[in-house]
Amino acid sequence: MTNSDKQNQLANAIRFLSMDAVEKANSGHPGLPMGAADIATTLYTRFLSHDPQNPHWPDRDRFVLSAGHGSMLLYSVLYLSGYEDITIDEIKKFRQIGARTAGHPEYGYAAGIETTTGPLGQGIANGVGMALSERILNAKFGDSIVDHYTYVLVGDGCLMEGISQEAIGLAGHLELNKLIVLWDDNNITIDGAVSLSDKTDQVARFQASGWNTSSVDGHDQEAIAKAIEQAKTSPKPTFIACKTVIGFGSPNKAGTNKVHGAALGAEEIAATRKALNWSAEPFVVPAEVLDAWRLAGLNAAKKRLEWEKRFAALDADTRAEFERRQRGELPIGFDQAIIDYKKKLSADKPKVATRKSSEMALEVINGIVPETIGGSADLTGSNNTKTSQTNAVTPENYDGRFVHYGIREHGMAAAMNGMALHGGLIPYSGTFMCFSDYCRPAMRLSSLMGIRVIYVMTHDSIGLGEDGPTHQPVEHLAVLRAIPNHLVFRPADAVEAAECWQLALESQKTPSTLALTRQNLPTVRTTHTDENLCGYGAYELAGTDQDAQVTLFATGSEIEIAMKAKAMLDEKNIPARVVSVPCFELFEQQSDSYKASVLGNAPVKIAIEAALSLGWERFIGENGVFIGMKGFGASAPIEDLYKHFGITAEAAVEAAEAKLKAAA
Amino acid sequence: MTNSDKQNQLANAIRFLSMDAVEKANSGHPGLPMGAADIATTLYTRFLSHDPQNPHWPDRDRFVLSAGHGSMLLYSVLYLSGYEDITIDEIKKFRQIGARTAGHPEYGYAAGIETTTGPLGQGIANGVGMALSERILNAKFGDSIVDHYTYVLVGDGCLMEGISQEAIGLAGHLELNKLIVLWDDNNITIDGAVSLSDKTDQVARFQASGWNTSSVDGHDQEAIAKAIEQAKTSPKPTFIACKTVIGFGSPNKAGTNKVHGAALGAEEIAATRKALNWSAEPFVVPAEVLDAWRLAGLNAAKKRLEWEKRFAALDADTRAEFERRQRGELPIGFDQAIIDYKKKLSADKPKVATRKSSEMALEVINGIVPETIGGSADLTGSNNTKTSQTNAVTPENYDGRFVHYGIREHGMAAAMNGMALHGGLIPYSGTFMCFSDYCRPAMRLSSLMGIRVIYVMTHDSIGLGEDGPTHQPVEHLAVLRAIPNHLVFRPADAVEAAECWQLALESQKTPSTLALTRQNLPTVRTTHTDENLCGYGAYELAGTDQDAQVTLFATGSEIEIAMKAKAMLDEKNIPARVVSVPCFELFEQQSDSYKASVLGNAPVKIAIEAALSLGWERFIGENGVFIGMKGFGASAPIEDLYKHFGITAEAAVEAAEAKLKAAA
User: Fold this and answer.
1) Closest by alpha carbon to B172, among A202, A242, A66?
2) pLDDT at residue A14 greater than cutoff 90
3) How remote is the C-alpha of A101 from its chain's centroid?
4) Residue contact A470–B379, C-beta within 8 A
5) How far, in Å, CA of B193 to CA of A394, rounded?
């Protein structure tokens, strides 16, 4: 043990707050906070640029507790540092309903929680996104305004999860040298020793992906400090392996999986108090210890004052632009630009795939909104996410606006979460919709956190064609719509694509997915409206409810089929109307009367979507007809597939006639 | 170029078949088959133990094309080696409807396709599962019967995907020395050079996880052969980096991303024919070349004859056991054991969590079914997947029946796919249900392939309690039910848990998920039936439809609530019945009359499930009441959460009364 008594006491404050809170809740994870207390103490009292009184200061260092189950570590240091959101009462309410101190750190519950963690491996990828944002914004605004570090604390679990490799590879490639990852190397997982399931040399693994590395005693605060100092001089991202003892201080449980995820029990806590010479009552931090922590917080805050001065010295336009981005507001003129662009589309009537019309919309958007950062998981030419304004972000030049994420869908999604959380940027990027499955844990967190991340998911049905069932989404629209607080858009033409993009960008607290076709589609919105009709979620596209015998509900590529079916029905003197349903979630937010008017009174209701029926009951009821997929797709040219699976205007007409005959 | 002319011609046969097929389809990926042709030629003509005439021979070597987009490589070598399923006509029908030669290799379409690949990174993890199965079965049946290699061809995409790290880590830990991974190291991804997104030293990365490695010229068949020979002597799994040129042979496109995923065009193919001295017409393989390939196939097949002799020399019981496992049939006595066990449960009426009753059922099953291989992603004590029969599988002793997969949900799921595909074993393993999201791409492939993999997903609702919304599934039941050909079971008590396990094990062509509680539940099936009632998917648990005013549909933990609501309604003289719905998918398979009888005629229909409502319209219609979740969960003790979210018997009673009053 090489720490001074004071250093030990600072760290012990974390240990006892964590032990006591877990004990009171009789639930939680004391092992990590006890083991990583020296790391956190070193970081928060000697390195972290932050201001507990102004916790949202944009140029603060970010700290991500990737091993989110150690939440009491974070709550402890926030309380000790003087963050007002985390009082001692909150700590006493750990894991109780309504508390800011949830089981795992929940973004938005308290300042100082930079991201929601718990699902392992997400935090390190969030950290990569944050560190990337820092570099991109630094390139834009300069060292005096954007110049901070991102620290991530990871456990063995984070490093075993595959997403960590995607994050490590991306950070190494982009040489994100202001990213510093501290590994709580305690040799223990829930099941027991790490050696039960892994023998990876983590230091060598990080080196293989271009990282700077070091190894230290995780209970030697001076050694940790030296490693962080060294990290700051490296041109690469840094991985610091900190050898720790899980549950440090517990005489009978330290170093075992017994202390990972359960309260220690009164007896063992008493023994630990004795072992660590800690005489304070539960939830009491001795005044001199708390003072030292608070002083460290105050000292750190001085950097913010210096930053404020530098910021005030900027020209007014730069300040306004920086602040606008921080607020998450779009530039003035954005709406008008979309309206003008839609006007042009209604006149031009392009016949293009919606992945292409998405690109066309982005060409307009990226010209006006400088904070969008595009990307693709190595499908740039297929996802159409790169526009004329977006040069690649490279280690040599962070002043780009397009990230080649590599074949790393999951890491990409989680990095986008980090970028949105960082502030100042709006991330969007693409992959094939079928591979939204790879992104799913991160997409769920976008929704849970309520952040503006935009997922471009192209090749959204069997319309993908020959690549076959492994690449053809069938259940994915339903399962993405199932995520709470997630807007799933499926535009039918270039006008709807522009409107959906507008809505996605305007949804500050909700992530969006755009489901886009590979195949060309005609323009159906040929009459211009300033109003964003997709904002209703569903709207009458053709025909009227007054006389309709049949309502055809459809989305995206199947609008063309619905329109054709309507024309065929009209010819047979069966009046039909078509309702476009670009977004289920927005439709649900409309008034009951609007919803009733869109659902309409036609005796026959048919939904057409080249996907499974799940969720369509909402529109067509128990007696409606669903024309779509019943199982997996197949490998063949697109024309063959739509016929093979019976997703045609003819099938819709036949079904409508049969229904009408049965009712007659 | 160091190959002999003959070697070159053997490889060129792959190249031209691939080029010609892609050209005819005007769709596909010629780059990989052309670049990796020397690797495949070396492997198939000199190493692979297989018998094209008896392709399902159990002790064959397995070859997995993890980079599934290069499917023409596989179809070419299968045709050339003499597999009857892949004729030249099939190759001409590449990517057309009904062809065995789908866009990506589809398991079950043709012998020799060992797994479905395309979603990147899955194949290498499948290979780990296959190689693990080989070791486990070798430990059981001995070297004379089970002793083969697993070869995997991976591309850059497979290695960038996070799942590859999980697979690499697991294989390194388990020292799967009969696993040989060949890397088609061509420096090119779809977007361009690999350097656009990665600088990982892959060889160093594999070494860091305990692999044997080597690097060779991927166009030097002798060098590749030497590396494979060396690999066979290593006590570790081997990674061979084969430096290749993508689209090898194409004068103007080789070495670029232009040849990755598009037809070369007639002109370039002509130029390639000239460059490689290949004068044969499209789809024609010169007789001497085809003969050499076929001869290699015949030579390889000799090993099968030797094996047959060794197998015939075994004692009858061992032979019968081996063959039973190969057929995928359960041991005689299995059904009776389940019936006996259920009888005991109905009498004992245990009050345990279904994760515990799953363990109790497994204790019976694992005693009778020796081929089950359990596991957990480091949540063994929480998932309750380990029974008294299942010692850990370790590098020192493969004769175990439990795999500590580590914190690698995705790799675990994909490895289980590989184990099921290998044959001879029935894999099951667990994680928290919320983290089924991490497994999803592999779970979808279990379903697409139609294989018996059993996913144990515990902590299946807000009943998880304090860990909070990151760990509480709300949409997961719906999104798992959305996967085609996937049985999602949610048993309500120990009897249903036993029945669901029985059904999962008996479903040879369909994977299953068991959704299990953390919290204790009473036994509701207190009257014994030999019949497996869960096999109906839904059945009347209490009350009758004759007089019922209210039908309460529920699953799992909410059956207790439904039963309490029924009791409360009965007291108010409102007759109610309870329908247990352990499996939506099996219910859909019942006759219309059975389904109608279960749905019943009660005027009020209420579904109770601590999850989102999606999918329940099927049971309660448009006018039913759903009592469940509307969004994400929260961190708190379980009792508080059910009340907080209004999932209570009182809420059900209130809703029933309100509905009846409104209708009166």
Assistant:
1) A202
2) yes
3) 21
4) no
5) 13
pLDDT above 70 for A1: no
> Is A484's CB within 8 Å of B475's CB?
yes
For B261, which residue in chain A has the nearest alpha carbon?
Answer: A467
**pLDDT given at position B435:** 98
The answer to whether the CB atoms of A466 and B617 lie below 8 A apart is no
Q: Which of A107, A7, A65, A82 is nearest to A300 (CA)?
A: A82
Contacts of A504 (CB under 8 A, 6+ apart): A428, A452, A454, A487, A489, A512, A514
Q: Which chain A residues are Cβ-neighbours of B161 within 8 angstroms?
A: 162, 166, 407-409, 438
Q: pLDDT tens digits, residue range A473-530?
A: 999 999 999 999 999 999 999 999 999 999 999 999 999 999 999 999 999 999 999 9
Amino acid at A363: E
Between A and B, how many CB-CB pairs are < 8 A?
330
Encode burial over B488-512: b for 16+ CB neighbours within 10 A, e otherwise.
bbbbbbbbbbbbbbbbbbbbeebbb
Q: What is the DSSP string of A197-221?
A: T----HHHHHHHTT-EEEEEETT-H
Residue A162: which of B156, B198, B410 has the nearest Cβ? B410
Q: Which residue has the tokens 């949540």?
A: B379
Dihedral sign from CA coordinates of A609, A615, A621, A626:
positive
ipTM of the modeled complex: 0.98
- pLDDT confidence of residue A3: 92
Candidates B192, B202, B613, B133; CA nearest to B421 is B133
> What are the structure tokens assigned to B175, written together?
């020292």
Q: What angle do helix axes B5-25 and B266-275 make, rounded to 10 degrees?
A: 180
Does the model's pTM come out above 0.90? Answer: yes
> Which pair of structure tokens corresponds to residue A573?
């003197």
Residue in A with minimal Cα distance to B168: A200
pLDDT in tens, A295-345: 999 999 999 999 999 999 999 999 999 999 999 999 999 999 999 999 999
Condensed to tens digits (0 to 9), the pLDDT of residues A72-97 reads 999 999 999 999 999 999 999 999 99
- Distance separating alpha carbons of residues B503 and B487, to the nearest angstrom: 9
Whether residue B652 contacts residue B570, with contact meaning beta carbons closer than 8 Å, is answered with: no
Residue showing tokens 């990282």: A211
pLDDT, residue A663, reads: 86
Nearest to B132 by CA among B368, B378, B427: B427
Please state, in angstroms and rounded to a whole number, the distance separating the CA atoms of residues A45 and B184: 49
State the Cα–Cα distance between residues A456 and B362, nearest whole angstrom.
43
How far apart are the C-alpha atoms of B177 and B364, rounded to whole Å?
33
Per CB-CB distance under 8 Å, the chain B contacts of A435 are 119, 441
Distances (CA, A) of B98 to A187, B69, B213: 52, 18, 41
Give, rounded to a whole angstrom, the gap between the first and last alpha carbons of chain B: 89
For residues B45 and B293, the answer to whether their CB atoms sit within 8 Å is: yes
Compute CA distances A181 → A63, A78, A240, A292, A613, whole Å.
10, 19, 6, 26, 45
The pLDDT value recorded for residue B2 is 77
The C-alpha atoms of residue B190 and residue A406 are separated, in whole angstroms, by 9
pLDDT digits (tens, 9 = 90+) for A144-179: 999 999 999 999 999 999 999 999 999 999 999 999
- Which chain B residues are Cβ-neighbours of A450 within 8 angstroms? none
Q: What is the average pLDDT across A560-579?
A: 98
State chain A's mean pLDDT as an integer.
97
Give CA–CA dist A108/A421, Å, rounded.
10
For the record, the structure tokens of A428 come out as: 């969007």
Q: Which residues of chain B have pLDDT under 50?
A: none
d(C-alpha B510, C-alpha A595), whole Å: 39
